[in-house]
Amino acid sequence: MSERLLALDARLSNQLRVAERPGPLRTFAAILAHSGDSWFWLLGLLLLWYFGTPEWRDLAIAMALGVVITAAVVTLIKFSVRRSRPAGEWGTIYRRTDPHSFPSGHAARAAMLAVVAIGFGPAWLAGVMVIWAPLVSLARISMGLHYLSDVLAGMVLGMAIGLGIMLWF
After folding, report:
1. What's the pTM value of the predicted model, to 2 decimals?
2. 38 backbone dihedrals φ, ψ, rounded to 5°
């Protein structure tokens, strides 16, 4: 049964793939795939904390803590499961620094950030994040870095961590 599910997962993921097809869709997917990078978010949240109002500083702290916790949990799971990434050329930096694909850290981080934005941010930010998070997750599949199941598991994990952050704060 699990072999058939893995084969279905690989087939569906491959159908969503645009990494090898030059054009505007690939460019858009590549930008989205990078937009969930943890260093990008931590730098942006540091700037938000430094220059922001007290409300924005609180949001930046909650989100930054979520980014760090999400990275730790995802890394622990990845090195326990050790599922290889789909074969491909795009995303060399990800493939070198982290050869494991399950769960998707980008999907987990994006979902966590969206949940925290819903809980603590203004409505406009929550709306943007709710649209952005699934697009990042889809882009990770489209660029050949993850399977569909990696992204779905990452999103569920990220939502759970986001809820935990909301309860903590």
Report:
1. 0.90
2. -65, -40
Tokens of 44: 């942006």
Reduce the secondary structure of the chain to three states and give it as a string. CHHHHHHHHHHHHHHCCCCCCCCHHHHHHHHHHHHCCHHHHHHHHHHHHHHCCHHHHHHHHHHHHHHHHHHHHHHHHHHHHCCECCCCCCCHHHHHHCCECCCCHHHHHHHHHHHHHHHHCCHHHHHHHHHHHHHHHHHHHHCCCCCHHHHHHHHHHHHHHHHHHHHHC
Domain extent listing, the chain: 53-169
User: What is the tens place of the pLDDT at every residue in 98-107?
Assistant: 888 899 999 9
